[in-house]
Structures are given as C-alpha cells and as structure tokens.
Design a protein that fits this description.
By secondary structure, this protein is mainly alpha-helical. It contains 20 helices and seven strands. The strands form three sheets. Strands 3-4-7 form a three-stranded antiparallel β-sheet. Strands 1-2 form a two-stranded antiparallel sheet. A two-stranded antiparallel ribbon has the order 5-6. Helix 5 packs across helix 8 and helix 18 (about 375-380) packs across helix 19.
Length: about 425
C-alpha cells in the first residue's frame, strides 16, 4: 500500500511496504488522516514523517512546486468562462460573472492552480458561512454549495488539463435544509384571488391555477396566448437579469387554460397597453418585477388575510397539489409543470394530497383478487371482519404466486 497526496502543488506518493490487510489498511488510513490534519494546519514536516524518502532528501518545497508552472485560478477562470459562455443563457452568464467577480476571485483568484489545496477550499467555505444572507441571517447551506460547485467546476477542469489531482473532488457538500412546501388550500386560493387588489387579480389567478414558474409568467407575451386553442405557450422567461429562454428544453410546453384562467387573461387584455408585448406589466409598460411584487403586493396580502408567510413560488406548488388532488394523471401534471418525469411529484407533493395513494390495504387486496381470483378470497373471508378478505387472499397464495404478486406491485408503484 502507498499514500498519495498533494504537498505544495506537487503530487507525492510514498510507499509503506505494508501488504494490503485489514489491520494494515486501518494503520495507513490513520496515517493519511494525520497527514490531512497537518496539511490543513500547515504543520506538515515531510522529512520527519518520511525521513528515507527521496523527496525529503531532495528538499521538496517551493522550488519543486515551481517545476510545475500553472496559471492562477483567475487566469484559468477567464479561459473557462470564455469556453462555457456559448452554452449559457445570457442572464445566467451575467449572474456567473457577477458571482466570480464579487465573491470567488478576490479570494482564490491570485493563487496558482498547483498551490490550491483542500485547506484553501475549506477555509474559503468557512469564510462564506460567515457572510450575511437575506434578511441579515447567515448565508444558507444551499447558497454555499452553489458557490462551491462553481469553484469545483473550474478547479477540476483546470487540474485535469495540467495533470494535477484536484483537491475539490474530495470536498463534500454541506447538508442542506429541505425546502418547505406550503401549498394553499382551494379555500385559500379563492380568498387570495378574491381579496388581492384588482390590477393583480388576473396575475394571481394565472399563477395559482397554472403552476407557471415566476420567470415564465413574468415573461409571458401576448403572442404566447392562443385563445382559439385555449392554451398558453411557455417559450421564454423574464427576470431582473433580463429576458431569456426556458429553464431547459423540457420546460417549453403548452399549458391548457381552465375557464378561470381564460377569463383572467381576457380581463387582462382589456387593460393592455397598446404596443406592449407583455401580458402582465407595470403601469409604464414594463414586465412585472418579481421582487417589487413580492414586497409590495404579495407579503402585505398574506398579512392582511392572516395567512402564513411564504414566498410567491408556493403558488406553483399550490397548482401542482390541486391538480393531483383532483385526480389528474401524474404524467400529465408533470408535463404541465415542465418536469421530465413524475419523480419530483411523488417525492415533494404526495403528503399534501389526500387519497393520492391508499393506506388501508384495499388497493393491495384488489390487486390480489384481480390476479388470483376474487371468488376464492370472497368464499373464505369472514363478513364483518376488517381486513379479513386481504388476509385470506394472501394466505391462499403459493410462494411462487406471492413472489409474482410482489413483483407486480413493485412495477405498479
């Protein structure tokens, strides 16, 4: 077994002469952890730990690191951005550029790629955790992970091109708090639409009953509304970073109008500003500003109605739960929301939807009876005994039949 680590920008391998046994593996792992701690603290003494190593005798240090000249993190970042820009939407590229210039490059930019180690990354991550987030609170783990993922992408690519082992690959993400899903009930939806100020009533109606994302509804143009076909075409988005395309290709879709949504859009069209392409706009003909809407309309409305505070994005969750609770096909709901699969629907929304799945065993009994004969189960069940038909049906199965049944149940789920 041998140890493989980076020291002062140089990849080092030191043989232990120990055979690979469970006991020796534990010994070497303990030594590796010791090296990691000392590297992190800056107390690592190569010669003291490996006195017979050729590297120690040669005096590994800055001169050895200089043998492998690499660009600085900032220099490689400029190349990485130039190569990546064609793949990005314009507003995403501007957001990345702003994040790099304000947060990442001032700290990591001057360092050569070969000199950046795990300790540098952990230190930068710790500094991020001290930054204030929204509302004066600490920056969230989700935000830190997003920033670190950007650092990792650049560093991994740079190290790969220059024959280095990237220290970012061993860095774990922080545990994130699960996003809260707080949909409104149908009664609350009616209350919100009925009590919001009149000029925002169509806007809330469309958001609560279609499940469009914030950028999608703010980016709607009249050319996207097909009253003849009764559909809304989701083709673009709008945010403070400007206009852009949809989140991904699967997000381009057609959303049918329920009667309330059609009426809301027809009402909005009556007050449309001539030559203004936007469906929802300010009095001056500009697109809705999401932050302005949240602070001046949305949160005051929730306070006025005595409803629990939650971000406007919960209107999308509301539409999803209402569609599923009404019995719509999950695959259809996923397509309306712009999801490629139904996985997120069941993971996020199932607990909010009564009767989406049964929990009393009757569905399972129906599956048993349907495949192996309802008559036999009915003949042996005891009337009036809760669950007796289920128990009898199961007891009548052979091991082979039970195995087949479980496979069918798994496939059905």
């Amino acid at each position: 077994m041998y140890l493989d680590f980076q020291y002062r920008g140089v990849r080092c391998r030191e043989q232990t002469a120990l055979p690979d046994t469970p006991g020796n593996r534990r010994t070497v792992e303990a030594l590796a952890k010791r090296i990691d701690r000392e590297l992190l603290k800056g107390t690592f003494d190569y010669a003291a730990l490996f006195p017979d190593s050729p590297r120690a005798k040669a005096g590994i240090g800055e001169d050895a690191a200089n043998d492998h000249v690499t660009p600085t993190f900032s220099e490689f970042t400029e190349l990485w951005v130039a190569e990546s820009t064609p793949r990005w939407r314009a507003h995403y590229g501007r957001a990345i550029r702003d994040t790099l210039d304000r947060i990442i490059l001032p700290v990591l930019g001057p360092k050569p790629l070969a000199s950046i180690d795990r300790g540098d990354l952990l230190g930068f991550q710790a500094e991020l955790a001290k930054r204030p987030g929204r509302g004066g609170q600490a920056i969230s783990a989700k935000r830190i992970n997003k920033l670190m993922s950007l650092v990792k992408a650049i560093l991994n690519e740079g190290c790969d091109r220059h024959g280095l082992t990237s220290p970012a690959r061993s860095l774990k993400t922080l545990k994130q708090k699960r996003s809260d899903v707080m949909p409104f009930s149908m009664a609350e939806v009616e209350l919100l639409i009925g009590r919001v100020r009149e000029d925002y009533r169509p806007y809330l109606t469309v958001r609560l009953l279609t499940g469009l994302r914030t950028g999608e509804v703010d980016g709607l143009q009249w050319q996207d509304i097909d009253f003849a076909a009764g559909i809304i075409r989701v083709e673009r988005t709008h945010s403070r970073n400007g206009d852009g395309g949809t989140k991904n290709e699967g997000s381009r879709r057609e959303v049918p109008m329920v009667p309330q949504v059609r009426a809301a859009l027809e009402q909005q069209r009556k007050g449309a500003i001539t030559a203004c392409p936007w469906v929802f706009h300010s009095p001056h003909g500009n697109p809705i500003d999401a932050v302005n809407f949240a602070n001046r309309v949305w949160y005051p409305l929730l306070r006025h109605l005595g409803l629990r505070k939650r971000p406007p994005y919960q209107m999308r969750h509301t539409a999803a739960t209402l569609m599923l609770a009404a019995g719509e096909n999950p695959e259809w709901v996923a397509s309306i929301l712009g999801h490629s699969t139904t996985e997120m629907l069941f993971r996020v929304y199932s607990r909010f939807i009564p009767n989406l799945t049964r929990s009393d065993g009757r569905a399972f009994a129906g599956l048993v009876n349907g495949h192996f004969g309802a008559a036999a189960a009915e003949a042996t069940s005891t009337p009036g005994t809760p669950g007796a038909d289920i128990l009898c049906a199961l007891q009548s199965l052979t091991p082979g039949q039970l195995s087949t049944l479980l496979a069918l149940a798994k496939k059905a789920s």
